[in-house]
Every structure is written in C-alpha cells, then in structure tokens.
Specification:
With about 290 residues, the chain is of the alpha+beta class. It has a single domain, classed as Ribosomal Protein S5, domain 2. The protein contains nine helices and twelve strands. The strands form two sheets. Strands 1, 2, 3, 4, 5, 6, 7 and 12 form an eight-stranded mixed beta sheet that branches. Helix 1 runs parallel beside helix 2 and helix 6 runs antiparallel to helix 7. The longest helix is centred in the last third of the chain and has 20 residues. It starts with a strand and ends with a strand.
C-alpha cells in the first residue's frame, strides 16, 4: 500500500502556551499565524512484517524524526507492519516554520489513506506527538486547516477553536541565525510565563480587530517584548521596515515579510537564505496519483 500527502508549513506570529499534562487533546496554544505553500510532502509505503518497523527518510537521508516516529506509532499501535516514509521538507527545521509538524501530519495522513482511516486520526496522532515532545503546540492543527488563523482556544476540536482571517498574499522568508530548540524554550518556566503574558494580550487585541494589518502589528509587538532571537534577526527587521511588514517566525531566528517582494528578497539576501511563498488556504491534503 502506498499513499502520498502534503501538509503546509506554519508560522506563528505570537502564541500563548496552554498546557494540560494529562490531556494532550486539550493542550496547545492560543495565538495567531498562517499556513504557507512550502511544507512537507510525504510518501508512505506499508507492508507486512514480523515486527513493528518504521523507517523514515528526510530529504533522502535516514532520520529518526522523533515527532513523525511517535505520531505513526500512535496510529499503528502494536501491529506488526513495515512502514517506510519518504518526506521532502521545503524549509529547515527549528526555525519557526512548523516543519516537524508538517512532516508528522503529512506522514500520518498518507498512512491513514493506506488503511482508509478518517483524516481526523492523522490530526490527533500528529498533534499528540508534537505536544508530548514539546516541539510545538499549535502547528499541527493550524497546518491541518490552513489559512491565516486565530487560535481562540487551545487543542483540537471540539475544544480547540480557530477563526480565520480572509486573505492571500505573497511572503518572503529569510533564515538568518542559529536554530532555536522549541522544547528547551517551552520547558523554561520563566520564558513561558513571559510568552504567555504577551501572547494573551496580542490574541485578545487581534480578536477585537481581526485584520491582516493588526496581525502584523501584534506580531511585531510580541517580537519586541519576548526578545528570543539574536541581534542580526532584529537588525534584518529594522532594515526592511520601509519595504513592508516584517516580524520573527516563532520560534526561530528567521523572519517573514510582505510588501515589495523583489526589493525584500534583494535586501534580505544579505542576511541569510531567502524563500518566496504564499498563504496556503487548503490545509493538509492527500495527493492523488
């Protein structure tokens, strides 16, 4: 059995962690962000086996891929199967692009397609794996639904609730500094307290006036208050402030910007590797052959 699925990457402008250690389906984040046309494409092949054997390849190289591995096990259980996953990631990991979530979700969707399981199984399996491993909190559910979203309440439906802001626009991404370990950040009580305080404020302000302009304003406010990125990343934002709107991808030393795409690419290429993408309005989906 073979199936293929795509899950968009996801960028958070700001967020408020909501942790329920005994209930992964209620765990997640409030906040806002958007799914992007760059993401993860996964092909899954399933065969019979004498044991539970999962092999994962990321961009052609064998990888443990802990989030994808755990997510697939959430679906397979104790069944003896040989599962081979080949995932192509469009963007680097640990830079605020939601690649671990996209890789896990696309793999789980493809696996569910092989067994004719509903897609909700994939959503639950990938979300549970990511929040358990603390590699992210709201990326899986956001990637699943797509678009520019406000996560009004944390977790998966029916507990988690998302409101969408209409709009599709081109984005310039730039990877500038070193990777940020999301798990390390989310396990630091002092940092989480600060993130929660400002994430709550920004979410409320955006809900009062849900617009793309206000999303960027609140993202910039959040970025300035939590101070997690390095100096070069902040410098890049200041350099392009007259060319459009820009803020930091949470959590990473990378930025997202919209405005004059050509000029943004030219200026940001001095700071790091540049990518062009747009809002993905469709969310995670099966790729039919």
């Amino acid at each position: 059995m073979i199936a293929k699925a795509f899950a968009p990457g996801h960028i958070s402008g700001f967020f408020e962690p909501v942790l329920h250690h005994e209930d992964l389906m209620h765990t997640g984040s409030r906040g806002a962000g958007f799914s992007i046309s760059l993401g993860a494409l996964s092909e899954v092949m399933v065969g019979e086996s004498q044991s539970n054997d999962i092999q994962i390849f990321i961009n052609g190289k064998r990888s443990y891929a802990q989030v994808t591995n755990l997510a697939l096990k959430n679906i397979i259980g104790n069944n003896s199967l040989n599962v081979v996953v080949k995932t192509q990631l469009d963007l680097p990991t640990s830079q605020g692009f939601g690649m671990s979530a996209a890789g896990a979700l696309s793999s789980c969707l493809a696996l569910c397609k092989c067994f004719n399981f509903p897609s909700e199984h994939a959503l639950k399996a990938a979300h549970a794996a990511e929040v358990q491993l603390r590699t992210g909190l709201g990326d899986v559910v956001s990637s699943y639904f797509g678009g520019l979203e406000i996560r009004k309440s944390a977790g998966l439906p029916p507990w988690g609730f998302i409101e969408h802001i209409p709009g599709k626009f081109e984005l310039v991404l730039c990877v500038i500094g070193k990777k940020i370990d999301t798990k390390k950040i989310l396990n630091n009580p002092n940092i989480v307290k600060k993130i929660s305080e400002y994430g709550r404020i920004c979410t409320q302000k955006l809900l009062e006036k849900p617009s793309i302009e206000n999303f960027f304003y609140q993202s910039q406010f959040f970025t300035k208050k939590i101070c997690l990125a390095d100096k070069k990343t902040y410098q890049a934002i200041n350099t392009v402030k007259n060319l459009g709107n820009a803020s930091i991808c949470m959590l990473g030393n990378s930025i997202f910007a919209t405005g004059n795409t050509e000029k943004l690419c030219r200026v940001l290429s001095v700071f790091g590797k540049v990518y062009i993408c747009c809002i993905d309005e469709y969310g995670a989906r099966i790729i039919e052959k």
